[in-house]
Amino acid sequence: MKRIFTLAVTLCYLSISLAQAQTYVQVTDAERLKPIIVDLWPNGAPNDNGLTGPEKEFANGRIGNVSKAALYVYPAGTAGSPAIIACPGGGYSRLAMNHEGHDMATWFNKQGITYAVLKYRMPNGDITIPLSDAQQAICIMRERAAEWNVDPTKVGVMGGSAGGNLAAQTATQFTSKENRPDFQVLLYPFLSMNEYMSSLLLKGDKSEEAMNKYWAIKQVKEDTPPAFIVCSADDKTVPCSDSVDYFTALRKNKISAALFIYPTGDHGWGYKESMPYKREWTAELERWLQDWKR
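Above: the chain sequence. Below: its structure as tokens.
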């Protein structure tokens, strides 16, 4: 399959044609599709994050204290469809399940893409907890590909912010062809490993070996899957230099990649209407995904 790489730094607004323009409406609870809910570890997970008690619910569909993983699957109903597993962000302390998860289901389904939202367990200092959930989700998507009309050779991972970090970890830390994603979609991803991230993911281990192992930018290799990356130049939470450095690492390894940087939007926009360039980035993603629908 022939692929091209793109670097589109959008520092000035370039209008798209009316034919390409689309109207996006925020999804309400009443309109949201009903997913198939899959228990990731019905016989018990291989590791434990040590969290106890019920999940905590926050405003705007966010949840925390997650100790039980699940996959919410929205089959496209199209034979041989690609599949995307979305990892919501939330700073690895909670999950933005709606605007970085469920709200995108209809949009992907209309493109003939099976979509799934991963409710992954909080790391609580151990990155291997959410990473094992993401890898298991990919395996399940492939195992049940026939049931959900999915092409098992076109299973991708997606995420925003900390979810983007998890998606990139999944794309660089795979251990087999079964849990290797075929492509990755990263929204304003946190990809560096600094003191803050090490405290979240490495139990405070600041050794060079530990930091480098899960520093996604440093773990890009020749077999890392192709990437679509988008961020905002004015992001005050995660510098878009993370995205630039990851893109650069991908290209140094001759990995197909597309990077789009928009002048405004800040951080955490997901599928929200408040992102000024929502039409632009979703249109670019739609174009990029065409290659996976052939």
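Residues 128-143 form the longest helix (16 residues).
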